[in-house]
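hiii, so i know i said id send this last week but things got crazy w the move. better late than never?? heres the sequnce for the chain we talked about at the cafe, plus the structure i predicted for it. fair warning i was half asleep when i ran it
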Amino acid sequence: VILLLANGVFFPFVVDPVPLGQIHVSLLNGFTLVFVVCAAACMAADTADSTDVADSDTLPWCTHCKKHVEHGTKHCWTCNKCTAGFDHHCPWLNSCVGQRNYNSFVATMLSLLPVFGIVSVTCILQVVEHMGLDKEDQLYSKSVAYGVVCPLAVVNAAVVVMDLHLMVVHIYLHYRGITTYQLILEMRDAKKLKAQRG
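okay and structure toks below
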């Protein structure tokens, strides 16, 4: 959220003198709006397991919620509720991600790529162009170029890399047909087995 606000404050200043700069700002605003809508949909979704079955002897029992839950449901300690099709608790959205909001979570991740990518690429191009200009042709001082534009480019590029990594992990999980939580359990079990074999 802080980075989105920083982009909103500094990015228009960075691209204002650039030809087509307002198109970059319009694209950034459009993708930011898509991000906000997707994130809101993800956070607003009721992920709680609503199983209400009379004959539920075969279903797991949650000792915290004191009820039977669907298979694949896990109790989230942060939300203090059972989440159907639990994937993980997202600290950035402060929400559990499960079968009811997984698609909006993926859309949220996807919408971040162009938001931070546009800022990063535009800032990098600005610095490269700035370095090649004579002092009287420069759009802003070196302190602005290196004190604002470079950090904005670096931080946004880092977020793009992290978001791409997260997308690759979720593509892998989708390919395997498992959740993040199931992957964590697999990794924990493999570590225990390796330690036992010594």
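btw The helical segments are 2-15, 21-44, 102-131, 142-176, 180-197. thought thatd interest u
miss u guys!!
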